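Lab notebook page, bench 4
Experiment: in silico fold of construct C2
Operator: M.H.
Input chain length: 211 residues
Purpose: comparison with the prior construct
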Amino acid sequence: MFYSFMRGLVRGLVAIINGNTHYQGRENLPQGAYILVGPHRSWFDPLLYALAGSPMQFSFMAKEELFKNPILRTILTKANAFPVNRQHPGPSAIKTPVKFLRSGQLSLIMFPSGTRHSQELKGGATVIAKMAGVPLVPTVYQGPLTFGRLFSRRRITVRFGKPIYVDRKLKLDEAGQKSIETQMLTAFDDLDKKIDPNFHYVDPAEKKHAN
C-alpha cells in the first residue's frame, strides 16, 4: 500500500516537474522477479527505474546511515529499502535481497558500480542473481543529471535490454565474474547508442571540478 502510494506520488511529481519521460524496451522485462542493473548517473535514476518497471515493485539497497533517523528509517523500510554498510558489507547485503527475490513479489534495483562516481563494476549483482535464480536486466538512464535540470523539461529516457541469465553452474571466480561484467557493459553501451548514438556520459561532479 505504502509503496504504491509513494510510486504514484513520485510519478505525479515527475510529470509536473519534467513531463517528458519515455520508457523503452519494456517488452524485455521478464515475468517474475529480476534485478535491474545499470550505470548510476544521478541520485534520482533509481526512482525513474522503479517507475519504468511498474507495476513490478522493487527493493533497494541504501547506506545504513540513512536508517539512523527513525522517521526516515520507517519510510525507507516501507518502501522496501534495506541498509547496507558500504565499507564493510556483511552477509545481509546478499541474504536480504536473495530472500526478497526468491519470494517472487519484489525485484531489485542495483547499481553494479556502487556509486555515481565510479564506473568499475563489482560482483555483488552477479552473486545475488545466481543465488536467487533470477536474471539481470540491463538498464540505462539518459536525461538531466541534477535536480535543477529536471525543470528544463529535457527528455528523460529509460531503456531496458534483454535479460542476462547467470548459469547455476557458472563458477563465480575472476573469469566467471568477468564474463557477466562484460555482458553487462556491452549491454549498457548498446542501450545508450540505441537511445542516442552520440551519447557520452560526463559525471557532473567531474565537470564541476574541471570548471
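Observations: The longest strand covers residues 57-63. The chain has a mean pLDDT of 89.
Next step: discuss at group meeting.
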